[in-house]
Design the sequence.
């Protein structure tokens, strides 16, 4: 038997003025049937009240304690972007940004959400001479990742991204007095200056200025993290998994834990993602793997926009594609559907509320749940569990747990 | 006030094709009345998803973390068989087995479930000359225990029991390169050879061959464990307990934690066990003890045989004897009835699903449970707790917990 962990990003919510959450408002016949024929519950992704990021939440759901293994966002973004990392690499998320040339202040943190072929900018950055090796990769639009290599680095340093406009790029400062932190900050500042110079000279930026578009004449760095090799899900639990996800961060977390990343055509991380294709690829990968983690990001995007209706409709759109999965749960598949964290539309940000969970397979007990939503889950037979418990629970139901004792 | 922990071995189950578990199918008026007048819940004996053995589960239920104290099966079997152990003793479970004399391959792992007076075989083994002290005790039928003494031993060694027939006895190998492991393996191999020679010469085996019965001409060893003295329940919790059980393993766990083992006439570990007598002895022992752990094994035996009807009837048989206990719970007794692990009849093996629990005494709150079964327990007011929590919960209800703080 195999199992599927279907994570609807930011799924959990709080009631709106009419007293309903998006999951309560949505018509979800497939998820409701899983709840009626299986069992529901609540998951605290990390621990009650803690507000999880998508990265720390997925670490928990894959059975590891984020307080022990979390490396900061940079390494996960870099892994998710397809880079190969080595022990000790210092990684960042990056943004192309626009500096106002006279004042040297940030005019646009995303360089007008620059898109298209940016290989000239990427090459210009990679041609910089630094006192260490490095690799820069532009990923989607203004976004990218930077990896510094070959020296002793520390991530106890500040971002160069001030997270606001009309201020200069921040100097990178060390957060402690160690040699590594001081020299890491110094290299980052050197990189930041040289990146600005290199980008100023790119033809693409001259063209953008001519076309009255904000030039990508600076690179903002944030999410510093030193990469450390993590023990994999296979090392720790003896099972082999795969991951279908649209976002780099989830792919990166999954990759850091040894899951095979399945690239699915049409998986965008947005509302236009090809849900059916993601689910089909996930089921396919189970032919050779014990489990698959699927992440659908769009529910979280709507939450961050405070778009209750959009989130509700996205949930309905996902539900409509679950018929095949529901059928498989009568045969050889255990499925769990849950959020990685709660993102209340009213808050437009993650919260520490527990997330709804439904589990159904041929081996599951049946509780009294009448549907899949926060209210039912609060009464559900799984009770209230921790994120790190879920993998073991699913392994047990899929017959992948070994006897401990005699 | 005193308390009773009544463990129905392997009680938890999963729904059959008709959607019912044995506990749901069974008519259990006494347990149901405890549930209606007390409260129910679910217990993860070790942690969610982990598949407990009876030994590791009982360690948890007695308030200890098995990951810290579990010694492997051998020492518990030896203690349960009545042997006195010393720090460092290397213990095994043993089986008399039949070797085919020409090929030296195992023909029967249980020597035709040999029974009767086997003292000649026991003596022959104990007369072997080994480079260390040892003690062998035949227990029930083909089963026994072996304890090696007086040297530095290691349990990082393999079994000689291949767990199948038509193969030779396995050589014992060390699992690491330590001196202790290598020398332990070497002594075990020497013992295994000498035991075979000694048994070959027993008159009983000549008689069995003549009667066309499989001779007990070899001894298979498994479950190696080095005995370490454990801190007792009394040391850790300040209360004194007793144990009524039919099986050596549960007795051994209880003994390793300082419980007094009450030997009850007619306690067999089988379906024919004298339930009434076990319960009467347990209540009697409470006159001088704070609590008693009772284990009834037969529910698990039926589960391992996949016998849903047998398990259901055994539950009903046990329930029928609980009238006296139910009455006591209105006076000075708190009782908890639960499984030590789930053994689904559909699986014929232990699983990591949580186990049903009911608690009732004159001090307990009352939840909305209508009866004692998995469905009610999933909604129960105790919620979902860990095995190690139970002892403290019962101590509290029986007024045996002291104020922590002020």
Sequence:
């Amino acid at each position: 038997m195999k199992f599927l962990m279907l994570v609807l990003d930011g799924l959990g919510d709080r009631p709106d003025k009419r007293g309903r959450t998006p999951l309560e408002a949505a018509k979800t016949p497939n998820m409701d049937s899983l709840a009626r024929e299986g069992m529901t519950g609540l998951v605290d992704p990390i621990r009650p009240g803690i507000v999880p990021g998508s990265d720390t939440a997925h670490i928990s759901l894959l059975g590891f304690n984020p307080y022990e293994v979390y490396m900061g966002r940079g390494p996960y973004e870099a892994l998710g972007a397809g880079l190969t990392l080595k022990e000790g690499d210092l990684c960042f998320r990056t943004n192309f940004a626009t500096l106002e040339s006279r004042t040297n202040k940030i005019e646009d943190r995303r360089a007008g959400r620059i898109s298209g072929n940016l290989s000239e900018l990427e090459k210009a950055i990679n041609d910089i001479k630094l006192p260490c090796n490095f690799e820069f990769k532009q990923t989607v639009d203004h976004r990218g990742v930077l990896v510094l290599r070959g020296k002793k680095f520390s991530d106890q340093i500040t971002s160069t991204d001030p997270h606001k406009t009309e201020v200069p790029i921040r100097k990178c400062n060390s957060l402690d007095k160690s040699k590594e932190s001081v020299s890491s900050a110094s290299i980052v500042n050197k990189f930041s200056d040289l990146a600005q110079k290199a980008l100023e000279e790119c033809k693409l930026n001259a063209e953008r200025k001519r076309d009255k578009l904000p030039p990508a004449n600076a690179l903002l760095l944030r999410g510093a993290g030193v990469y450390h090799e993590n023990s994999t899900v296979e090392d720790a639990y003896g099972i082999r998994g795969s991951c279908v996800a649209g976002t780099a961060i989830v792919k990166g977390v999954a990759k850091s834990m040894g899951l095979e990343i399945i690239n699915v055509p049409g998986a965008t991380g947005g509302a236009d993602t090809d849900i059916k294709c993601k689910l089909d690829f996930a089921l396919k990968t189970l032919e050779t793997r014990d489990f698959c983690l699927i992440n659908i990001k769009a529910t979280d995007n709507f939450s961050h926009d405070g778009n209750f209706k959009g989130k509700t409709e996205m949930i309905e759109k996902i539900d409509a594609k679950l018929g095949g999965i529901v059928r498989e749960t009568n045969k050889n598949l255990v499925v769990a559907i849950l959020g990685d964290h709660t993102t209340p539309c009213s808050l437009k940000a993650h919260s520490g509320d527990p997330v709804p969970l439904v589990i159904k397979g041929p081996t599951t007990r049946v509780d009294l749940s009448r549907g899949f939503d926060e209210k039912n889950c609060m009464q559900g037979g799984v009770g209230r569990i921790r994120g790190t418990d879920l993998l073991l629970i699913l392994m047990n139901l899929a017959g992948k747990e070994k006897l401990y004792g005699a």
Notes: The first helix of chain B runs from residue 22 to 25.
